[in-house]
Structures are given as C-alpha cells and as structure tokens.
Design goal:
Number of domains: 1
Keywords: Signal
Shape: globular
Mean pLDDT: 79
Protein name: Lipoprotein
Largest sheet: 5 strands, antiparallel
Low-confidence stretches: 13-22
Distance between the termini: 41 Å
Length: 174
C-alpha cells in the first residue's frame, strides 16, 4: 500500500512539474493553449491567443507578439489592427465528490468587421472524482484582425512597427 501511495505521489508531482514547465507563449496544439492564426488574404490575418487565467494584458500582448512575428515572417514592416476582441471564460470547479455524465456546450464567437456570430457546439463528458479544496478555472482568449504593410507606416494609433513590437513583447529568459 505504501508503494502505491509513493507511486501515486510521484506521478502527481511529475504531472504538475510538466504543466508548470510549459511556456505560456507557444503554438497551440489541437485547439489548446497558445497562439494560432488564420490567413484571410495575402495581407490579412486573424491572430488568436488562448491562455489560462484572466490576465487580459498578457493575452493581448501575446496576440500582438504573434501578429508582429507573422508580419516579419511574411516580409512586411508594420501591421494595422483592424479589429480586436478579448474574452474571459470563468468556470467554478466543483469541490464535492462527483460521479456522473454531463453535457456542456462550447461557445465559439466569430467576429467580422461589422458583426459577430456566436455558435454553440455540444460536448459530452463522463467524470468521477473526489475534489479537495476549491478553485475557479479561467480561460482567456484574445483575437486580432490585422492588415500587413511595407514602407511608411500609417500615422494611426492602430498601426504598429512589427520589429519594435517583437522586441518589446518577446518573453525574456529569466
């Protein structure tokens, strides 16, 4: 029994260490946390960043950083943010013993230049467990529509020099 407890403790510690060691700024895999983008035209992109927590500033900074990287990767100098949206989704996690089947809906909001459309997709889950303590789970998502450009940058508060943004917002090694 003691061996089983030690093994369980070791597995939990390794799992927590693996989660803690993941950098916040990374490419999203399979709809998970991190950045992703969709190419709309040769010079227009929609940039996404999804992270844990509720820090709106960090989520927006990481979306802006990805926008700067895309701009430079495509051979452009600056980008204009045509539309921006940041959403925080909070969920209270149960703290009581629980066994059951639940059906949830995932909310997806797509925004264009004029309107937004919200769709709901069903998800079924089977859950069991004993929860000790309590917590609130938050997910934050930031989305930017950007237009890439070269040469003289427009004189607008929505235009950004890609090199400066990348230099100022890149994660610093600690």
């Amino acid at each position: 029994m003691k061996t089983l407890m030690k093994l369980a403790t070791l597995v939990m510690a390794m799992t927590l260490a693996a989660c803690a060691s993941q950098p916040a700024y990374r490419a999203a895999e399979n709809g998970g946390y991190g950045y992703s983008e969709t190419k709309l035209t040769d010079t227009q992109y929609r940039v996404y960043f999804k992270g844990k927590g509720s820090d709106k500033t960090k989520a927006m900074d990481y979306a802006m950083l990805r926008a700067a990287e895309i701009t430079l990767d495509q051979g452009y100098d600056w980008f204009v943010v045509a539309n921006r949206e940041t959403m925080v989704d909070r969920e209270k996690v149960s703290m009581e013993p629980e066994i059951g089947f639940s059906k949830r809906y995932t909310r997806v909001t797509d925004c264009g230049l004029v309107t937004c459309r919200t769709s709901y997709y069903p998800e079924s889950t089977l859950s069991t467990g004993i929860y000790v303590g309590g917590r609130e789970k938050s997910v934050i998502e930031s989305a930017l529509d950007i237009q890439l450009g070269r040469g003289t940058r427009p004189d607008s508060s929505a235009s950004f020099d890609a090199r400066q943004v990348k230099e100022n917002l890149s994660p610093k090694d600690e």
